[in-house]
Amino acid sequence: MDMKNKKNALVFDWIIYVKVVELKSFSLAARELNLSVATVSKTISKLEDTFSTRLISRNAHRFEITGAGEMAYETALEMCETYHNLLDEMNDKNDIKGELRLSAPGNMCNSVISDWIIEYTEQHPEAKIHLLSREAGSFTSDSPEFDDLVIKSGYLDSPDLIHKSLNPVEFGLYASRGYLDMSPSLAEPEDLNQHHLLRLNHTLMRSPLKFSRAGIEKKCCISGSREFYSNNIFSLLHMAQKNKGICIAVPCWEIRNSPACATLARVLADWALTPIPAYLVWRYRKQYSLLFRDFSSFLEKKWNVFFPLGDKEQ
User: Fold this and answer.
1) What is the pLDDT of residues 148-164, one digit of tens each?
2) Within its chain, how far is the Cα of 103 from the centroid?
3) For the whole model, what pTM was predicted?
4) Sheet containing 161-169: order of strands
């Protein structure tokens, strides 16, 4: 425990109380806080005198938190956390240090997210961000990656996980001009049934697909004459470039930022697929490091600028 808390005597008294409750020992709390047992004991007695109630029942053989003590502990924990967070916010940003894992979709790890991490670590040289690349659908609520930060599209209903909404990702249908020149024309989403389809294996991209145009929504059950599924967007793009079919679906930013996609054309450009929602997810914890809070805020801002609401590639 950093002795800078002594600058605020009231807060430090509660920090001592929280430590005593958590360790269930005056002597262990004194040792961890580098204080005497007598100082710890006097602090607890002072708090009990302030509220005119017993917080901890103790004797030579028993240590027990009273009902009032449990209530005081919960409130003290929140107060101490708020105090620590305030101190962190007041510190110079150069104090940001430590290690953090970020798990994100593989196609984004290859480009934009890597650039964001480079930018962040150049600003904060003592911060280390470990980037974990994964494909869609590879997570459950028990995945260890949630102990840090995860960018994902699906929502996992778990009391341990916190989901922070990010701007959704716009997707489009793309094919090579060579394939389109030798295949039936398309005017409506139903026309996709006549084509070879390269499908992103994602729960939100399964039939029926949702399309919208000029405020009108349409659900279509699509089953192409030949279909290929993959959870790796690069394999789909590779096949599209080889004139093997229409890719359902490609993130519009991938087309915008990848020179290799210059040969692909937008299919049914006046129809929009329902955007896929995105979340920044992590497992709940009582306290968050300054690095965690600063980097997650940085990541959220970068994402929402990169994926503005209503962004559509024509």
Assistant:
1) 999 988 777 888 889 99
2) 8
3) 0.63
4) 127-134, 98-105, 149-152, 276-283, 161-169
